[in-house]
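Molecular record:
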Amino acid sequence: MELILIRHGTTQGNLEKRFIGTLDVPLAPQGEALAWQVGPTLPAVEHVYRSPLLRCRQTAQLLWPGVEQTVVDELRETDFGPFEGKNHEELKDDPLYQAWIGAPGGANFAALPVGESAQQVVERVSAGLKKVAADAGRRGFGRVGVVSHGGALMGLLAQYGRPEREYYGWMCPNCGGYRAQLEPETLLLHVTQAFPGDGGNFLK
C-alpha cells in the first residue's frame, strides 16, 4: 500500500511563527493558493485520511478535490500546552521557554517542556497509522493520501521512516511531505519520494 503523507497548507500562525497545535485555525489565503498549486503535482489517491483540524480538511479538499475523506483523530497535531498560539516575542520572558531555547544544542521540538511529550505524540500518531492501514487494507485501496501536521509527521517518520533519520531529518514544509510504501504489519514506511511544498517554515 502506498501513502502520500502531506503536511497541511500555510496558516496565519505559520506566517507569524506561532505554536499552533490544537488550535483549530483555517488556512491563510497563501495556504489555499499553495494547495491549489501543489495539488496537480501530487499522485492521484483513492481516499484521504486526515487530522480532524480545519486546516487539514481544507488542504485535503484543495489537493484532491472530490476524493472522500476519513477523519482520524489521532493524526492531530502536538498539544503545545501554554505555548499554544504564542510566538517567540510573546514567550521570550517565560522561564520555561527560556530554559528550552537555552538548552544544550538549542531548541528541540522533540523535547518541549510543556504539552505533549514527543513519545506521547509518536504513540498517538502510531495508533492513527494503524487505523489507516487497517481501514485502507479492508477497503482494498492501493494508494491513499494522509494529511496531517509537521510535528505529527516528523514524529511518525522518525519512528517508522526508512531509511532511518533523526526527528528533524523528516521536516515537512507546508503542503510538502513524502511518498512511502507502508508495511501494514510493522508500520514501516519505505520513503521513495519527497514533495517540496513551499520549502518554508516548519512551525505547526
Q: What stands out?
A: The chain has one domain: 2-195. The helical segments are 12-15, 29-38, 54-63, 88-91, 95-101, 118-138, 150-160.
